[in-house]
Amino acid sequence: MLVGSKNALPGMQLHYQSLVTGALPLDVAIEVVKIVEADETDHSVGLGGLPNEDGVVQLDAAVMDGRTHNAGAVACLENILHPSEVARLVMERTDHVMIVGRGAYEFARSHGHPHVELLTEEAREIWMRWKESMSEQDDRLVPGPDTRQGRAASPEEAARLARLDRYLVERVTGTIHCSALALDGNVACTTTTSGLSWKIPGRVGDSPQIGSGLYCDGEAGSAGATGRGEAAILAHASSACVELLRGGMAPLDAGLEVLRRVTRQARRAALWQPGLVDERGVPTFGLTLYVLGLDGRHAGVNLLGPGQYAVADPEGGPRLADLVPLHE
Ligand code: ASP
C-alpha cells in the first residue's frame, strides 16, 4: 500500500507495481517523491520550488524505515536535486539523524550528488514579483499586469503574469509525503519539500523533523504531514498519529484526534497571534495528515475543508481519495 499527498499520485502510478512485486517500501517511497523533486512545474518541492526571502531555494527532507527504526534528514539543503536521497544517505552512511545547511550540501556532494541550480526562471520571476509587491514604501515598484511601462502586454504575456501573481495572493505551501507498507508488513516513509515560500533563511519546517512531518514504527504504522509546518512541529503531529494507532485507534480517528489537538493548540497560540484562528475558533491555516495502519487501513484528514490524497492498494491501484475535514 502507498498513502501520501495528492501530488504523489504520478509517482505512485509509476512505482506501485514494484512494491507489489517485492521492492523495499523505503525504495518505493523515495522513487515516488523523486518525481516531484525533479518536476520544475511544481513550485513547492525541489527543482522549481519557491525560494526563501533571499531568493535561495532551501530544501528539507527526511526518510524513516520501520524495519530498522532508523531515520535520516537534511534541512536547509541548497543546490541538490534529490534531498530525499541525501536524507537516506544520512540514515544509512552516518551515525547521525540530521545534517543541515552547508554541511548537508558538502555531504551530498561527497556522495556524488551534482550541484544543481534549483531556482528556475519562473520561480525567480515569482520571487521578484513578491519582493516588488511587499511594500509601497520601498523603492521597488508594485508590479502591474505589465512590466514595460505603458506598452501593452500581449494577451499571452498578461495571462502568464496573472498566473504567476496567483502565487503572491496565497503563500505557497506544498510538500510531498509518501508512506509505504509492503506485503511482509514492513513500513517506511519520506517527506520532502522546499518549505514555505519566502521563509526566513535558515527556517526549518516540519518535513525533515522526525515525529513532526513524518514518522513510522514497524510496530504501529506510518504518518506524514503537509501544510503549516509550525503547527505540525508543535503537535508532533506524525508521531502523535502513530502513537494513537499503537493504542488501537483506526487511522481516521487517530488523524482527526490529532487535528483536534492542533485546533486547541492554535486557539491558545492565538492569544498572542490572533490571525491563527477565525471568529469561530477554527484555524486559518492548512494542515493535512496521512495515516497508514499496519493492517492497510488508511486515512487522509484535513484541518479545514475538502481535498484529496493519493493512495495505491490492491483493491483499486493508484488513485485519489477524499480527505476527511475536521472543520467545514
Ligand atoms: N510543511 C511544509 C513546511 O512547513 C510546507 C507545506 O507542506 O506546505 O515547510
Outline the structure in words.
With 328 residues, this protein is of the alpha+beta class. It has one domain (2-116, 171-327): Glutamine Phosphoribosylpyrophosphate, subunit 1, domain 1. 34% of the residues lie in helices and 23% in strands. The chain has nine helices and 13 strands. The protein has helices at residues 9-20, 25-37, 83-93, 101-110, 121-133, 155-169, 229-235, 237-246, 251-269, and strands at residues 2-5, 59-65, 70-77, 98-100, 176-181, 187-193, 214-217, 221-227, 287-293, 298-304, 308-313, 317-322, 324-327. It has an eight-stranded mixed sheet. A five-stranded mixed sheet has the order 7-8-9-10-13, with helices on one face. 50% of the residues are buried. The mean pLDDT is 93. Residues 173-175, 193, 195-196, 205-207, 226-227, 229 line the site of aspartic acid (ASP).
Entry keywords:
single chain; 328 residues; alpha+beta; Glutamine Phosphoribosylpyrophosphate, subunit 1, domain 1; 8-stranded mixed beta sheet; 5-stranded mixed beta sheet; 9 helices; binds aspartic acid
Uncertain regions: pLDDT < 50 for 5+ in a row? none
CATH class annotation: Alpha Beta
**How much helical structure, as a percent, in the residues?**
25-40%
| Mean residue pLDDT | 93
Q: How many β-strand stretches? A: 13
Q: In terms of structural class, how would the helical and strand content be classed?
A: alpha+beta
Reported for the largest beta sheet, the result is:
8 strands, mixed
Distinct small-molecule ligands in the complex: aspartic acid
What distance lies between the first and last C-alpha atoms, to the nearest angstrom?
A: 29 Å
Going by CATH, the architecture would be 4-Layer Sandwich
The CATH topology label is: Glutamine Phosphoribosylpyrophosphate, subunit 1, domain 1
CATH superfamily descriptor? (Glycosyl)asparaginase
Q: State Rg.
A: 20 Å
The overall number of domains is 1
Strand order of the largest sheet: 4-3-2-6-5-1-11-12
Number of helices: 9
Molecular shape = globular
Beta content comes to 15-25%
Order of helices and strands: EHHEEHEHHHEEEEHHHEEEEE
